[in-house]
Write a structure and sequence with these properties.
The protein is built from 3 helices and no strands. The chain is mostly helical. The protein has a single domain, classed as Methane Monooxygenase Hydroxylase, Chain G, domain 1. The relative contact order is 0.14.
Amino acid sequence: MKDGQKTDNTQDLCACCHHKNTPRSAREQRQLQSRINRMIGQLNGIKGMIDDNRYCGDILIQIGAVESALQSLGYVILQDHMQTCVAEEVRKGNDGILSEAIELIRKLK
């Protein structure tokens, strides 16, 4: 195989999804970072609760809150992915992208 030569179509399946970056506006990046920073704060709070031997039920409530926040972030990213990468590939005629999208949805749940 020569350098740069592909042996199959797998790399073409979703070219935009395999780039090292996805173009996002500064506003979108700030919103995502804000969500992540809140989760980091919540996780640090949980760590502190464990260090303080807090009641298990209180810790579990906070764990649920972090899980919910992470799930919500995942849905935001998924929505963006569907509206950009997936839509673009479908417009190009690459229906194979739908299989990847379905697999990502399965992994997110």
